[in-house]
């Protein structure tokens, strides 16, 4: 799909982009405008929630971790005002647990950063019943699967390290060291 391909966005092409990476936000906003979206941008949870409530868009792309909080708060605010909105959550962390949490509270899909405008558009416009993309050629390693499981339990425990360590039968400090590291490939 080229950068200037006009899409069938229905009657309402409004799009909210929420990300605290200003360069990425501006670049994605320009690319989405070229595709026919009417774009509002926000660089924080507070600004994103304000726009979601005052002008609920048909589409939204929301970063998961923002400087002033969690992008899932914006997803919840938008879902409350506009249940039919198509919402994609972006995460630089790529944890299955956070993706599951995003989908449970109303996100349509999630993408790992870096994601280009074409991937974002495909995720926004994918409808139920569409053919799913091919599975990855190189699946997760065993270390990555372990790390994803730990992240899922951590999210289920509301990010409480002590409770997570207890449920996983592991020492709290060991868990803290694992959580402080980047995810394995």
UniProtKB/TrEMBL annotation:
Keyword Phosphoprotein: yes
PROSITE patterns in the record: RESPONSE_REGULATORY, TAT
Biological process (GO), any one: phosphorelay signal transduction system
Annotated Pfam families: Response_reg
Keywords, comma-separated and alphabetical: Activator, DNA-binding, Phosphoprotein, Transcription, Transcription regulation, Two-component regulatory system
Task performed by this protein: Member of the two-component regulatory system RegB/RegA. Involved in transactivating anaerobic expression of the photosynthetic apparatus. It is a transcriptional regulator that is responsible for activating expression of the puf, puh, and puc operons in response to a decrease in oxygen tension.
Protein name, per record: Photosynthetic apparatus regulatory protein RegA
Species the sequence originates in: Pararhodobacter marinus
Upper taxonomic lineage: Bacteria, Pseudomonadati, Pseudomonadota, Alphaproteobacteria, Rhodobacterales
């Amino acid at each position: 799909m080229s950068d200037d391909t006009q899409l069938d966005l229905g009657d309402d092409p409004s799009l909210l982009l929420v990300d605290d990476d200003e360069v990425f936000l501006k670049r994605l906003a320009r690319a989405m405008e070229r595709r026919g979206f009417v774009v509002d941008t926000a660089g924080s949870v507070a600004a994103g929630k304000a726009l979601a409530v005052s002008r609920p868009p048909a589409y939204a792309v929301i970063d998961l971790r923002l400087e002033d909080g969690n992008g899932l708060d914006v997803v919840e605010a938008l879902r409350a005002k506009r249940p039919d909105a198509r919402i994609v959550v972006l995460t630089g962390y790529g944890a299955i647990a956070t993706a599951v949490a995003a989908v449970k509270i109303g996100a349509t899909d999630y993408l790992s950063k870096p994601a280009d405008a074409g991937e974002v558009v495909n995720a926004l416009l994918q409808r139920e019943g569409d053919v799913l993309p091919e599975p990855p050629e190189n699946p997760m390693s065993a270390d990555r699967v372990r790390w994803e499981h730990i992240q899922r339990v951590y999210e289920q425990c509301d990010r409480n390290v002590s409770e997570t360590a207890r449920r996983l039968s592991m020492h709290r400090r060991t868990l803290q060291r694992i959580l402080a590291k980047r995810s394995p490939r």
